[in-house]
Amino acid sequence: PLVTSKEMFKKAYEGKYAIGAFNVNNMEIIQGIVEAAQEEKAPLILQVSAGARKYAKPLYLKKLVEAAVHDSGLPIVLHLDHGESFEICKSCIDDGFTSVMIDGSKYPFEENIELTKRVVDYAHERGVVVEAELGRLAGIEDAVKVSEQDALFTDPDEAVEFVERTGVDSLAIAIGTSHGAYKFKGEPKLDFERLEKISNMLPGFPIVLHGASSVPSEFVELCNKYGGQIPGAQGVPESMLRKAAEMGVCKINIDTDLRLAMTASVRKYLAENPSHFDPRQYLGPGRDAIKQMVIHKMRNVLGCSGKA
Ligand code: G3H
Ligand code: 13P
Ligand code: ZN
Ligand code: NA
User: Fold this and answer.
1) For 111, which DSSP code?
2) 23 CB under 6 A from ligand 2?
């Protein structure tokens, strides 16, 4: 069935692991992820961005996820990623999503609280859970001075006040991760002191890490070997994610690594089979590359294998 993340997060918090939240945009991506979760007996969050809804149409994604639930028999969370308004959150809640993110992180503190509270009230009346975000995601190297970094990263006292005043179910925080394939210019670094502080001040409360792809060099190299041009890509080291998962972090968002895995495999297939033109011939391996990537994450990074 489609479920909320309430129980998943509770177990993940106590068990010191994290649930993977994977972005989905089409059938092959959904199938690859769900096959992995089935094989690993892992809890699963499938998340849909505004861009995904635009690309695939909301109804297609909803029906594909429903098909995944029926076919796999797994409990799956259907989550809106980075909802930027009350309206898109409402639309997803009305459509049967079990979880939504309202991302008010670009607004001043009080406005973020007001917007988040409005979504929480609407969602909770309908049995849907809400994730919010406080602080700005930007690479630690982007902030030149400590004072600037301080302004960008999530303030622990504000986090506590935010959670209390909004009644939100989980909170995405900024500690140095960022979206995409170029997260760090130099040495990767996350502000674990800050994470620990926030975690300790919100005992039992699920924290979310966005921008948590690791951008494995073998996949970047594979893309580049077969005609790609993504030099200098760098992500969050897996050891850091494992450490975060042992603390209050219960949800780890991964999109870029799925994109890299699928694209590397499609590039390789097409380069090696120039006469093939049936999309199933390269999308099949693309789907399998997603599956293998997700299995690796569940087993070796998130620690959620066998926890469904
Ligand atoms: O947070 C961003 C996710 O990677 C989704 O990306 O907005 O291009 O679908 P997207
Ligand atoms: P990555 O770009 O690191 O995969 O982050 C995805 C994300 O945070 C989706 O909300
Ligand atoms: Zn994100
Ligand atoms: Na955890």
Assistant:
1) H
2) yes
- 3-class DSSP state of 234: strand
Residue for token pair 């004072």: 147
SS3 at position 100 = strand
pTM score, whole prediction: 0.97
Ligand 2 site, residue 105, Cβ cutoff 6 A: no
Which residues are identified as catalytic?
Answer: 81
Is the pLDDT at 165 greater than 70? The verdict is yes
Ligand 1 center–CA 84 separation, angstroms:
12
Q: Does residue 108 come out as left (phi exceeding 0), alpha (psi in the -120 to 50 range) or beta? A: beta
- Backbone φ and ψ for 128, nearest 5 degrees, come out as -105, 145
Backbone angles phi, psi at 2, to 5 degrees: -80, 130
152, 143 Cβ separation under 8 angstroms: yes
- ipTM confidence: 0.98
CATH topology assigned to domain 6-302: TIM Barrel (3.20.20)
Q: Provide the pLDDT for residue 158.
A: 98
